[in-house]
Amino acid sequence: MNYYMAPMEGLTTYIFRNAFHQYYGGIDKYFTPFLCNRHMSSREKNDILPEHNRGMCTIPQILTNKAEDFLSLCQDLSSYGYDTVNLNLGCPSGTVVAKGRGAGFLSCPDELDAFLDEIFSRCPLSISIKTRIGMEQESEWETLLSLYQKYPIAELIIHPRLQKEGYGGTPHLSAYKRAEEMLSCPLCYNGDIISPATQEKTLKTLPGIKTIMLGRGLLKNPLLPALLRQENTDPSTLKSFHDTILDGYLSIMSGDMNTLYKMKDLWTFFGQSFDGAEKYLKAIRKARTVTDYRLAVNAIFRTCRVILPAPSDPW
Ligand SMILES: Cc1cc2nc3c(=O)[nH]c(=O)nc-3n(C[C@H](O)[C@H](O)[C@H](O)COP(=O)(O)O)c2cc1C
């Protein structure tokens, strides 16, 4: 099985990805959170710079519905040595959808077709796509699949939910199966894989899955890829992993508060891996200085047991 790290805006930054690669690895491709402007900001450039992505297979992701912006960004990415980019057709956020981007683009198949036609005919890079299965109804998926059939998609990553579902309900596994029947490009499954048991359950219905992209499950528990591979895991590494991320942000961000915002976002996922951590998680949320933050974090690592899913535990 191949495992990919999902792009997660504000969370899976190059600081996080490098720390992950250093301590755990076992990820075949790392996807960057989306780039959405024709010209990259310095923060976005830092995220994709080759020297910040050494030793990793990193795929930059683009969120746009304008072919010219996509192609211009690809030109810049090509000058940094990238040969593949990923198009975001899955973001469900209201502001993104209102602009007809991300999952919002799925509701305009004719415009999407014209966009794909232009980028696939003009882009010198390979293009992979990360998609949802529609906006409102599962029946939209058939139209999208016949559209995807027309283009040489390097890889199609499917999060089998509708835009209107956000991250709720359960993924529509039958939609992934339909893609297996209809498409010949490589496919990747993404959605709700958080433990060996959820992987096993998904593979029972979809035995053809060869690649899984991990998002929230990996943020909650960085040992997840190793658990899924049935490799040895050592929870005592989590503290050093955390400290590397903290030091990384402190070294690049101005002012402690900006670093604390980043770390607090991370703890909304990471915190779920510790038993009885609520009181310390509250202290983390309230911390205004790095010193207070470190005190709360040290208390968690000192006192709380890391919860790891057992092989049969849906977690
Ligand atoms: C906070 C957050 C930020 C995300 N940012 C992105 C993003 O930048 N690009 C993208 O394609 N998907 C993004 N996603 C979606 C994830 O990549 C993934 O598709 C989703 O979380 C489902 O996978 P999971 O169940 O393994 O978490 C984001 C999801 C969350 C919760």
From TrEMBL:
<comment type="function">
    <text>Catalyzes the synthesis of 5,6-dihydrouridine (D), a modified base found in the D-loop of most tRNAs, via the reduction of the C5-C6 double bond in target uridines.</text>
</comment>
<feature type="domain" description="DUS-like FMN-binding">
    <location>
        <begin position="5"/>
        <end position="236"/>
    </location>
</feature>
<keyword id="KW-0560">Oxidoreductase</keyword>
<keyword id="KW-0819">tRNA processing</keyword>
<comment type="similarity">
    <text>Belongs to the dus family.</text>
</comment>
<dbReference type="InterPro" id="IPR018517">
    <property type="entry name" value="tRNA_hU_synthase_CS"/>
</dbReference>
<dbReference type="InterPro" id="IPR013785">
    <property type="entry name" value="Aldolase_TIM"/>
</dbReference>
<keyword id="KW-0288">FMN</keyword>
<dbReference type="Pfam" id="PF01207">
    <property type="entry name" value="Dus"/>
</dbReference>
<keyword id="KW-0521">NADP</keyword>
<protein>
    <recommendedName>
        <fullName>tRNA-dihydrouridine synthase</fullName>
        <ecNumber>1.3.1.-</ecNumber>
    </recommendedName>
</protein>
<dbReference type="InterPro" id="IPR035587">
    <property type="entry name" value="DUS-like_FMN-bd"/>
</dbReference>
<dbReference type="InterPro" id="IPR001269">
    <property type="entry name" value="DUS_fam"/>
</dbReference>
<keyword id="KW-0285">Flavoprotein</keyword>
